[in-house]
Design a protein that fits this description.
The complex is a heterodimer. Chain A has a domain at 55-244 and 261-267. Chain A has 13 helices and four strands. Chain A has helices at residues 17-36, 43-68, 76-90, 96-120, 125-143, 157-160, 168-186, 188-198, 200-205, 210-236, 247-257, 269-288, 293-317, and strands at residues 10-11, 14-15, 162-163, 166-167. Chain B has a six-stranded parallel beta sheet with strand order 2-1-3-4-5-11, with helices on both faces. Chain B has a six-stranded mixed beta sheet with strand order 7-6-8-9-10-12, with helices on both faces. Chain B is of the alpha/beta class. Helix content of chain B is 48%, strand content 19%. The interface between A and B is large, with 35 and 36 residues. Chain B: Belongs to the bacterial solute-binding protein 2 family. Chain B: One of its GO terms (cellular component) is cell envelope. Chain B: Residues 37-293 form the Periplasmic binding protein domain. Chain B: This is Ribose transport system substrate-binding protein.
């Protein structure tokens, strides 16, 4: 993942400059933050940033994989809710680790179903995952229409454990990005996923199964959403069936800020992580500057547009 | 656009007309003994509102011979209006609207009026007078009650944070916050800090907003949230920041988990009980009374008792939502 001087000009199917752009953006945002507000460089605030990255980060990696194939996964927010409430519900009867694994597995299963419908039946990803968004949200409410708050203190552990100054959940997210980055750029399966988004026909002609890799992409997204749901429930201490509405939008925004193309084939894990950081920083800074919530929404939208315009301009130059 | 508007008008008229027709057929049997009552829920996704829906259904079952048709608008005012029209076309005898800002959908209100059906509001009151009867809490009083409790408790003053829910339920939240502010602004050496971002009425929202607040205001001594769900999230954020000894919490609603936290003697000190069971049951009773021909009180405020460690057990056992 390191960008050495003799790194290939093309990494995971996109120009190296994208990662540079994302890193430059993060550095810029950090510099502005550090100079203009005292509260920013406090340990509390930095820990907050690390914690608040986790959900969006995990969802963004899964979303990236799907976007690379030229698809989209709108169901992730609902999967977060389902995985969380299932884990909290099961934790009263099953050992906690088992309950958590079942929660994650539910995400994998939903991803698999999405993948089958999209890859096997060739339905449009937008439609399939939009239908999944409402179906899975409904299922979360069917499972429990009231929040579930596990009594056992150990339920909170995953969400609040710290490894020195770094939250455990952040380490998990970074591990996903590290493994995920290597997967996309160094393994045949990952490279095939990127290639499908570039030109599915070529991939088919090269004798690689497009269906299998599409299925894999949606399953990865489901896994990430399931993991994010379990972590979020543990962090909040209460699982709510209503959690996660519009989470998919932040995940997509992070990918796009990181330079991923919704047409597929373009985007990288590092740049997406940069996108997540930018997004979380925007939220954090607007809060520290005490910008009122409605204006936060306006500014967030405008900043995303500005970032994409800058990307576009720099892409033309290269 | 014009075409759409006229289409909508025609649809509304049609609904009104059919309802009127059925109505005239019904005259003669002034007080039936079995009724069909439609419940239009604005949003079933919160425990308070789903509790309300269940309470209405439970009360109907207790009374017997009342059929309940329940709908959910998923927090969408336009959907709520459509649901109301659906209920009218199912020829319900009365409609109960739970938590909905239907005044923003005048067509639906006009359709109810044209159909001549009584409409009972539970929880949220309309600004317009176009309803038969309303039963709900006094949100400003709940806020005030919390504010007075905090003022008494925080003898040496300090910074009190306010976490707001946001636009989905703004008039209610605003009333609660105004109540708290009214009580605390009168108190010397207490400063109020309003979180710039909304907590979205949810625990994860409350958690994130509290984390941001703690970063910019590490010296808080108390936090008030416009509902219990957000406070429960805030409580986790405070615990994670190891400030449980420093910051006390005040919420509104009486969500089960909040009652438990209060009863357990945590830093969650107080909430105002909005008892969905009571409000829902009274709402159904009111609708039935009106159908039976009684003239009902227009506005009924249901008390929201203050819940602290002293009396939390008693409300928990009652099994509030």
């Amino acid at each position: 993942m390191t960008l050495t001087k003799d790194a290939p000009r093309v990494l995971a199917g996109r120009p190296v400059t994208l990662a540079h752009g994302a890193i430059a953006l993060v550095v810029l945002a950090l510099a502005i933050a550090a100079v203009t507000t005292d509260a920013f460089l406090t340990q509390t605030n930095l820990t907050n940033l690390l914690k608040q990255m986790v959900t969006t980060g995990l969802l963004a990696y899964g979303m990236l994989v799907v976007i690379l194939t030229g698809g989209i996964d709108l169901s992730v927010g609902s999967v977060v809710a389902f995985a969380g409430i299932l884990t909290a519900g099961l934790s009263s009867g099953l050992p906690l680790p088992v309950a958590m694994l079942v929660g994650i597995a539910s995400g994998v299963l939903f991803g698999l179903v999405n993948g089958v419908l999209i890859a096997r039946f060739e339905l449009a990803p937008f439609v399939v995952t939009l239908a999944a968004l409402t179906t899975i949200r409904g299922l979360a409410f069917v499972y429990s229409d009231v929040p579930i708050a596990p009594e056992d203190e150990s339920f909170f552990w995953l969400g609040s454990a710290m490894l020195g100054p770094i939250p455990l959940t952040t380490v998990i997210m970074l591990a996903v990005f590290l493994a995920g980055g290597v997967f996309l750029s160094r393994t045949p399966a990952g490279r095939s996923i990127v290639a499908i988004g570039g030109n599915a026909e070529t991939v088919r002609l090269a004798g690689i199964s497009v269906r299998k890799h599409m299925l894999l992409a949606y399953t990865i997204s489901g896994f990430c959403a399931g993991l994010a749901g379990v972590i979020l429930a543990s962090r909040v201490g209460i699982a709510q069936p209503s959690v996660g509405v519009a989470f998919e939008l932040d995940a997509i925004a992070a990918c796009v800020i990181g330079g991923a193309s919704l047409a597929g084939g373009k985007g990288s894990a590092v740049a997406t992580l940069g996108g997540v950081l930018v997004l979380v920083l925007i939220n954090n800074l607007l809060n520290l500057y005490n910008v009122q919530s409605f204006w936060q929404q306006v500014l967030k939208g405008l900043i995303i547009i500005a970032v994409i315009l800058v990307h576009r301009a720099s892409r033309r130059r290269t | 656009m014009k075409r759409l508007a006229s289409l909508f008008l025609v649809a509304a008229l049609a609904v009104g007309a059919t309802a009127c027709g059925d109505d005239s057929a019904d005259t003669g049997e002034a007080a039936k003994d079995s009724y069909k009552i439609g419940v239009a829920n604005f949003m079933l996704s919160g425990p308070y509102f789903s509790g309300m829906d269940k309470a209405i259904a439970a009360q109907a079952k207790k009374k017997g011979n009342i059929e309940i048709v329940s709908t959910d608008a998923n927090g969408d005012a336009a959907k709520l209006a459509a649901n109301v029209e659906d209920l009218l076309s199912k020829n319900v005898d009365a409609i109960i609207i739970s938590g909905g800002p239907l005044e923003s959908a005048p067509a639906a209100l006009a359709a109810i009026k044209a159909a001549g059906k009584p409409v009972v509001l539970v929880d949220r009151k309309f600004q317009t007078g176009e309803y038969t009867s309303w039963i709900g809490p006094d949100n400003e009083a709940i806020g005030k009650q919390n504010g007075e409790f905090l003022a008494q408790r925080l003898t040496s003053g300090g910074k009190v944070a306010i976490i707001k829910g946001g636009p989905a339920d703004n008039s209610i939240g605003l009333a609660r916050t105004n109540g708290v502010k009214a009580a605390l602004q009168a108190t010397a050496n207490i400063t109020l800090v309003e979180a710039p971002d909304f907590g979205g009425w949810s625990s994860d929202g409350g958690l994130t907003v509290m984390e941001s607040l703690l970063a910019s205001n590490p010296d808080l001594v108390a936090v008030f949230c416009e509902n219990d769900a957000m406070c429960l999230g805030a409580q986790r954020a405070i615990a994670d920041a190891k400030k449980t000894e420093q910051i006390v919490i005040a919420g509104v609603d009486g969500q089960t988990e909040a009652l438990k936290a209060i009863s357990d003697g945590t830093n969650y000190l107080v909430t105002g009980l909005n008892d969905a069971d009571i409000i829902g049951a009274k709402g159904l009773d009111r609708a039935v009374e009106i159908l039976g021909g009684a003239t009902a009180e227009k506005d009924t405020v249901v008390d929201s008792p203050m819940v602290t460690k002293d009396n939390a057990k008693q409300y928990m056992d009652k099994g509030a939502f």
